[in-house]
Specification:
This protein has 79 residues and is mainly beta. The protein is built from one helix and seven strands. The longest helix has 9 residues.
Length: 79
């Protein structure tokens, strides 16, 4: 499964990002940008399922400073 998004503004505009795997080996989806609303999921499949339901996904890349939250309409999911 390939999950990507493209940074649309700022110094890293055009960079491709992927789901951010956090220190606890979990991925994060959320209905809002607030940490209190973060939902941690264990797999990319669950990440994709939640994004398809409309949740935002926390994504990053080595060249993009810090993970960012992307809306579901900005995320591309390929099987």
């Amino acid at each position: 499964m390939k999950i990507t998004a493209k940074v649309s503004r700022g110094p890293q505009k055009g960079e491709i990002v992927r789901p951010q795997r956090h220190e606890d080996a979990m991925y994060v989806v959320s209905p809002t940008r607030f940490e209190k609303d973060y939902i941690r999921v264990a797999t990319l499949e669950e990440f994709a399922r939640q994004v398809r339901k409309g949740l935002k996904g926390r994504m990053s890349s080595p060249s993009v400073k810090g993970p960012r939250l992307f809306s579901s309409k900005s995320i591309t999911i390929e099987s």
